[in-house]
Design goal:
Elements (H helix, E strand, L loop, with lengths): L1 E7 L2 E7 L11 H13 L8 E4 L5 H5 L6 E3 L4 H9 L20 E7 L4 H14 E12 L7 H8 L1 E5 L6 E7 L13 E4 L6 E4 L11 H15 L6 E5 L5 H9 L4 E6 L2 H14 L4 E6 L10 E6 L4 E2 L2 E2 L2 H13 E12 L4 H5 L3 E9 L3 E9 L5
Parallel strand pairs: 3-4, 3-5, 5-6, 11-12, 11-14, 12-13, 14-17
Antiparallel strand pairs: 1-2, 6-8, 7-8, 9-10, 15-16, 17-19, 18-19
Helix pairs in contact: 4-5, 6-7
Length: about 375
C-alpha cells in the first residue's frame, strides 16, 4: 500500500493507494490543480451543493470535505480508498455510483476527465442533467491520459469558459453546462449478438469490449459451456470482473440451474450485467456485487470465471490479476476450479502457481492463453 502526503491550498492530506506498488501514488497533479482551482474560485458558503465525479483514491473527496460534497464514481475502488484514507473522527458519506446516481441540481461539479472517449461523453451528458443552469463544471486530468478527441467533446457538450494553463503535465477546464443529456443519446448502450445464440449482450460506455466480443473471451467461451454443463443444480459460480456478464451468461445458457454471482469494480459493468441477465434469464438465481474484491463473507464457489483486467489508471501489469488470484484461492470449494484467459505476454502460468497447486493450460492462440487452476494452497506474496 503506497502512502504519500498531498500538500495543496493549505491542506495536508495523507493518502494511501490500496494495492498500489511503491511507485504508485494515491493522487496526481490533476487532483492538485483541481483542488487549487476550486479553492481559488469558491467557498463552502458559495456552493451549497458540490458533486465530485470519479475521484480516484479520495484526494478530491477529502480535499473538499469542507464543502460536504456528494461523491459519485463508477469504480468501487473509491469506496475502499475512502475507508482507508478518511481521518479518524471525520465523517464522509459513501460514494454513490451508476447503480443509484445522485439527483441534482448541483452548484459545482468537480470531475476527473476519463481516459475513454465514450465514457467522457456519457459523463458530460449526465453532468448536464444534474448541474444547475448557473452552475460550474471544473474538470481535469493528466494530459497524457486525455482522449485524443476530448477538446472536441467538451466543445460539443458543454460551454467552455476557460482552459487553464497546463502545469505539471495536467490540465483543467472550467465550463458551464450544455443542453445535451443522456436522454437524447442513442449510444448509451451498445452490444453484439452472442456467438451461437440469439441473445444480444449490451453494455454502458465504461464496460470493456462493450460493442464486440473480445478475442480472449471468445477463446474461453467453449470451455465455460463445457464446465458449466457438468455442474449440479445449485452449484455456485462467480463471474469475476464480469464486464457485461458474457461469461456468467454463457454458464447460465449451458446450465440454467446454476447460482451465478456477477462482480465488477465498475458500476456500469454491474448495471450492464444485471440488465443482460434480467433479459435472458429472468428467473435465474443470481446476485450482483459492485466490488473491487471478493468479499470475505461471499462464501465458496465451485467455479470461478475470470478474464482479468491488466491496466488500472494508466498502470499496466499483472497486479490486479495477482490480487484476484489470491482472493479466488480463498473462495474456491476444495473441488472447485477457476477458468481464466489472459494475455500470453503476462506469464500467468508462473503467477498462478503461487496460489494454486494445480494449473493446466487448456487452450491458446498467439495472443491469449486459457488456464484451469484449482486445489488451492496459500499464496506467497
Amino acid at each position: 500500500m503506497t502512502s504519500d502526503v498531498l500538500e495543496v491550498s493549505g491542506l495536508s492530506l495523507p493518502l494511501k493507494r490500496p494495492g498500489g506498488g511503491r511507485s504508485l501514488r494515491a493522487w496526481d497533479a490533476a487532483d492538485e490543480l483541481l483542488l487549487e482551482q476550486v479553492y481559488a474560485r469558491f467557498t463552502p458558503e458559495s456552493c451549497p451543493r458540490v458533486l465530485i465525479v470519479d475521484d480516484q483514491f479520495g484526494a478530491l473527496t477529502l480535499g473538499l470535505a469542507s464543502f460536504t460534497p456528494v461523491s459519485f464514481a463508477d469504480s468501487s475502488s473509491l469506496a475502499s480508498a475512502l475507508i482507508t484514507n478518511t481521518p479518524s473522527g471525520q465523517d464522509v458519506a459513501a460514494p454513490s455510483s451508476w447503480l443509484a446516481p445522485p439527483e441534482g441540481p448541483f452548484d459545482l461539479v468537480v470531475m476527473r476527465i476519463p481516459r475513454q472517449v465514450d465514457y467522457l461523453i456519457c459523463v458530460l451528458r449526465w453532468v448536464n442533467g444534474v448541474l444547475d443552469s448557473d452552475g460550474v463544471l471544473i474538470a481535469g486530468g493528466m494530459i497524457k491520459h486525455l482522449p485524443d478527441s476530448s477538446a472536441g467533446v467538451f466543445a460539443d457538450l458543454v460551454h467552455t469558459r476557460e482552459v487553464c494553463p497546463a502545469r505539471k503535465k495536467a490540465r483543467v477546464i472550467v465550463a458551464a453546462p450544455g443542453d445535451q443529456t443522456l436522454r437524447n443519446w442513442d449510444d448509451l448502450w451498445k452490444g453484439y449478438l452472442l456467438p451461437d445464440s440469439e441473445q444480444t449482450i449490451s453494455a454502458m460506455p465504461n464496460v470493456f469490449a462493450r460493442d464486440k466480443l473480445d478475442i480472449g473471451t471468445r477463446l474461453l467461451l467453449p470451455l465455460v459451456k463445457r464446465e458449466a454443463a457438468g455442474l449440479p443444480a445449485g452449484a455456485r459460480v462467480l463471474d469475476l470482473a464480469c464486464g457485461n456478464g458474457v461469461l456468467g451468461l454463457t454458464a447460465l445458457a449451458a446450465n440454467p440451474e446454476l447460482a451465478v454471482t456477477f462482480s465488477d469494480v465498475s458500476s456500469q459493468a454491474v448495471v450492464s450485467a444485471r440488465d443482460n441477465v434480467s433479459e435472458a434469464f429472468p428467473g435465474a438465481e443470481v446476485a450482483f456485487h459492485h466490488n473491487d474484491c471478493i468479499p470475505e463473507d461471499a462464501g465458496r464457489f465451485e467455479l470461478v470465471l475470470l478474464n482479468p483486467p491488466f491496466h488500472e489508471g494508466g498502470v499496466v501489469g499483472d497486479h490486479i490479476a495477482l490480487r484476484l488470484f489470491r482472493q479466488v484461492a480463498r473462495h474456491l470449494e476444495p473441488s472447485g476450479r477457476m477458468l481464466m484467459v489472459g494475455n500470453r505476454h503476462l506469464g500467468y502460468h508462473r503467477s498462478l502457481r503461487r496460489f494454486f497447486s494445480t494449473v493446466r493450460q487448456l487452450d491458446a492462440d498467439p495472443k491469449f492463453v486459457v488456464f484451469e487452476a484449482g486445489n488451492q494452497e496459500a499464496g506467497r506474496s
